[in-house]
Design goal:
By secondary structure, this protein is an alpha/beta fold. The protein has eight helices and four strands; from the N terminus they run H-E-H-E-H-E-H-E-H-H-H-H. The protein has one domain: Creatininase (Rossmann fold), CATH 3.40.50.10310. The protein starts with 15 loop residues before the first helix and ends in a 6-residue tail after the last helix. Bound molecules: zinc ion (ZN).
């Protein structure tokens, strides 16, 4: 049931008496992985975002110093994926349902005596919901530190391994995601079906971009016929292993910092 998470770090394997007796509970780091079940082109399964999140977290937890208490909650496989819903198989929660779910999970964690919760999100379509959930939980409980974090924002080497075009426009089911899937779930990747597709180019002098600082609302169908936005054909398992190693190193550093983190109070 624990997937890539080391069993001793899997929260649901604890008993209520383990939790009641746990020392220094206000600094224990509880991590909620949040994924998505959504189309990732013809060559990748629907589970990509959820799988990558759990794989990164599992690898980070294997490397984490055993003296640092941190536990993974069961992955929330469903996310807000309505930008992909023209492609069958995508399952989406509304922003409201996802927000309510995260807040109710957070309330349960707080009630158990924990004071540090990480929302570890792996899907690019929902960081805004993580941020609202984290802020609302912290407003509700002053001493609850909630961290709305995106899996890919820790320091890592991935950009060094990608082409300039892929770095800029490979936002979905491209080289990075496909490489990491070849490393973690190779039987679920169909490389013979991989196609490259980039969004229609913006004028050179445009201030607007798909995922830049000044953006516009889009659904995937506006950008791609195949559901791929990027180039998966150059993906390799070796690249995936290096990406996984590097992103999980970033997460080790981040979990250690969150364990020590204390909020300044006026
Ligand atoms: Zn994805």
């Amino acid at each position: 049931m624990h997937s890539f998470i080391p069993p001793e770090r899997f929260f649901p394997y604890l008993s209520w008496t383990d939790i009641q007796a746990m020392p220094n509970k206000e600094n224990v780091v509880i991590i909620q992985p949040v994924g998505a079940i959504e189309q990732h082109g013809p060559h990748l399964p629907l589970i990509v975002d959820a799988a990558i999140g759990v794989a990164v977290l599992g690898k980070a937890m294997e490397k984490l110093d055993s003296k640092i208490p941190a536990y993974a909650l069961p992955t929330l496989y469903y996310g807000k994926s309505n930008e992909h819903w023209h492609f069958p198989g995508t399952i989406t929660l509304s922003a409201h349902t996802l927000l309510t779910t995260l807040i109710e999970i957070g309330e349960s964690i707080y009630r158990a005596g924990f004071r540090k919760l990480v929302l570890m999100n792996s899907h690019g379509g929902q960081p805004q919901v993580m941020e609202i959930a984290a802020r609302d939980l912290h407003v509700k409980f002053d001493d609850f530190l909630v961290f709305p974090l995106f899996t890919w924002r820790v320091p890592h080497i991935t950009w060094e391994l990608l082409s300039p075009q892929e770095k800029q426009l490979g936002i979905h089911a491209g080289d990075a995601e496909t490489s990491i899937m070849l490393a973690i779930l190779p039987q679920q990747v169909k490389m013979e079906k991989a196609v490259a597709e980039y969004p229609p180019p913006q004028p050179e002098d445009s201030l607007l971009s798909v995922e830049g600082k000044l953006s516009f609302a889009w659904v995937t169908r506006d950008l791609s016929r195949s559901g791929v936005v990027g180039d998966p054909t150059t993906a390799t398992k070796e690249k995936g292993d290096r990406i996984l190693e590097s992103v999980s190193d970033g997460w080790v550093q981040l979990i250690e910092e969150i364990y020590r983190f204390q909020q300044l109070r006026p």
